[in-house]
Design a protein that fits this description.
GO terms for molecular function: 3-oxoacyl-[acyl-carrier-protein] synthase activity. By secondary structure, the protein is of the alpha/beta class. The protein has a single domain, classed as Peroxisomal Thiolase, Chain A, domain 1 (3-Layer(aba) Sandwich), CATH 3.40.47.10. A hairpin with a 2-residue loop joins strand 1 and strand 2. The chain starts with 9 loop residues before the first strand and ends with a strand.
Length: 419
């Protein structure tokens, strides 16, 4: 079977997920539908004198003894868990020998403060030149912070084919990884691949940087109520971590081997605005363009979308921009939209992949996850945001939005299996 442009259909045959709500797709999905929050106080590093002291943290087994892993190692552990679950669900290939490439979306890396302090102590000098001079005895630091190293180690563990692709496009990263995988299958470069989005950036330096941008919620006294997308009293996003993996396959090849088809990635659209390092262009053209490009790529009209998995960060500017974009694309008949970030926070590089997983589950189960903490509607948000309680619905196609810092925007269309 082919799509409207004559390309192979791209099926999803396996999924894996880890968030602050728990480990595994089903555990996360059941808690999302129940409207539970994974946001809590940060305990892995001191937060005295910080404006924000909450996050969506994932507690890894390796950290149970008190050791805190660096962000790249946390990314590797969570991505590995999600990949393990996705590959097992797909029943594709022998263990440790996956018959396709890896596309890994992850955050940029740099040496974190604890290791910088270690190098400074050894050098007895806080300058970068002095720290660099003593790094020769710390091969582990070099390997931990090598951006491509995470993908190389995961590729070796799962036996993926070819050189793994590691990429970062800010908050759109997870969706970008899926888009690369879809396009590789459409071009005939492979019949299967693994697309992953993962982020482990809840560490002191990253938290302070986002705080200095006035981007984070400071509702510390009630962590579970801090993430409030589309609500009148929203005041910033909640930084979180997690990972999701999807096994993508040529639909005909998957059917031929008797695979269970979870759904399709039927469209992907991107549009950058090159306006500002962190802000989106107020005219909204890039956001509107990304949504329209995804619909065009899927060969769908706006009225065929049943539900939108919103970017919905809970920042005043972003939510208004998404509302504007939705009205520009869908007019007065906009479908329901909700934000998973109200429960799991903003997982940054993992967000697009996690939201793709939840979008496919929305189609499978006919249940719209809610936007929790919606106590007081904002008159400027004119959309049905599925407030507070999950809802039954017939869902055929979902648009999943990922709008990143620097105007990097990617939208995906997820669909049910062809009748």
């Amino acid at each position: 079977m082919r799509d409207h442009l004559g390309r192979p259909l791209v099926a999803v045959t396996g999924m894996g997920a880890v968030t602050s709500l728990g480990f595994g797709v089903q555990d996360n999905w059941s808690r999302l539908l129940a409207g539970q929050s994974g946001i809590r106080r940060i305990t892995r590093f001191p937060t005295e004198h910080l404006k924000t002291t909450i996050a969506g943290c994932v507690d890894l087994p390796e950290e149970a003894g008190g050791e805190v892993l660096t962000s790249p190692l946390r990314v590797e552990r969570m991505a590995g868990f999600a990949m393990e679950e996705a590959v097992a669900a797909s029943i594709l290939g022998a263990k440790g020998s996956f018959p396709g490439p890896l596309f890994l979306g992850m955050p940029p890396v740099e040496v974190e403060w604890p290791d910088r302090f270690l190098l400074t102590r050894e050098a007895s000098n806080p300058s970068y030149a002095a720290m660099t001079a003593v790094t020769g005895g710390h091969r582990a630091i070099y390997e931990n912070y090598l951006f491509g190293g995470v993908g190389e180690r995961l590729a070796a563990r799962f036996g993926t084919r070819g050189a793994p692709i590691s990429l970062t496009t800010a908050c759109a990263t997870g969706a970008s990884a899926i888009q690369l995988g879809v396009e590789a299958i459409q071009r005939g470069e492979c019949t299967a691949c693994i697309a992953v989005g993962a982020d482990g950036s809840v560490h002191a330096e990253a938290l302070i940087r986002f705080s200095l941008l006035s981007a984070l919620s400071t509702r510390n006294e009630e962590p579970e109520k801090a993430s409030r997308p589309f609500e009148k009293n929203r005041a910033g996003f909640v930084m979180s971590e997690g990972a999701a993996a999807l096994v993508l396959e040529d639909y005909e090849a998957a059917r031929a081997r008797g695979a269970t088809i979870i759904g399709l990635v039927s469209g992907a659209g991107e549009r950058a605005d090159n306006f500002h390092r962190t802000r989106s262009n107020p005219d909204g053209r890039a956001i509107v363009g990304a949504m329209k490009n995804a619909l065009d790529d899927a060969g769908l009209e706006p009225g065929q979308i049943s539900y939108v998995n919103g970017h919905g960060t809970g920042t005043p500017e972003n939510d208004k921009m998404e509302n504007f974009g939705m009205r520009a694309v869908f007019g007065e008949n906009a479908p329901p939209i909700s934000s998973n970030k109200s429960m799991i926070g903003h997982t940054l590089s993992a967000a697009g992949a996690l939201e793709a997983v939840f979008s496919l589950l929305t189609i499978r189960d006919g249940r719209l996850p809610p936007t929790i903490n919606h106590d007081e509607p904002d008159p400027s948000i004119t959309l049905d945001v599925v407030p507070n309680v999950a809802r039954d619905a017939t869902v055929r196609h979902v648009l999943s939005n990922s709008f990143g810092f620097g105007g990097q925007n990617v939208c995906l269309v997820l669909s049910g299996e062809p009748a």
